[in-house]
Amino acid sequence: MVPAIDHPPTTGLDEVSPPSPSFKDEVTVLVTGFAPFKSTHPTNPSYSIASSLPTYLSRLPSTPNAPRINLVIHHPPVRVSYTFVRALIPSLYASHPKIDFVLHIGMAAGRSFYTMETRAHRDGYTLRDVDGKEDEEGSEIEDDGKKKEGVWEREGCPAILETGFESEDVWRRWKNELPDIDIRPSTDAGHYLCDFIYYASLAYFYKRAAGAIGEEKGGETPVMFLHVPGEAEKEDIERGREVAIGLIRGMVGSWMKGKERYKEVATEL
After folding, report:
1. What is the mean pLDDT of residues 248-255?
2. What is the pTM of this model?
3. Buried b or exposed e, range 88-116, using 16+ CB within 10 angstroms
4. Residue 42: how many CB atoms within 10 A of its CB?
5. Do residues 106 and 226 make contact, with C-beta atoms less than 8 angstroms apart?
6. Residue 29 and residue 110: Cα distance in Å, rounded?
């Protein structure tokens, strides 16, 4: 079992430069995975898969002019804690200011298939984390019937945030690359830490676009979430690695779509 960190580093948000895919010669994708949280799953395959990824993805022979895809894996695994994740996300982007895209990976125990999550929820995190806590800073209806506004609601973030990727296009590219693996799109990330970290990242970019973070306004929400089955044998990790790489290529290829310089290349990615 990988030891968790109790307190993530904190850094000022004004140090962050907004990710701005330039599509010159290379792009960078930040990937995270979670620490174990179930006694029945002493190894969390999400982090094992993330850790197994190469440092970069080579250009495919069919797309020699496409950018090289650099992969930055966040270490150590993310602690399955609401408080930890709330503190982690801003510091994560402060410590990786040059990233273009983000892929969070999490485990969905009991499933035999992989899902590309397309949206995340702001509220409703009542399942207790590894510290035995609910999301104490979220919106909720109190015992007297009154509504308590959480941090994100006070900051103007909507109840649901969707990925900035064109989901159908990413799904098509992903499926074309992995026709024999059971991969599916999904609109419900589960109202636990997977859903939570996804919303936290999307909210970060949402606030940045509104000018609430840093000095620059605008920008996109280049974040995606991948749910993987709970099995963590060698062949499971190898399959998950293949799935993650396929999704990353689909994300980058889709994002390139419409970019004038790479329009022709992107149709082949």
Report:
1. 91
2. 0.84
3. bbbbbbbeeeebbbbbbbbbbeeeeebbb
4. 10
5. yes
6. 28
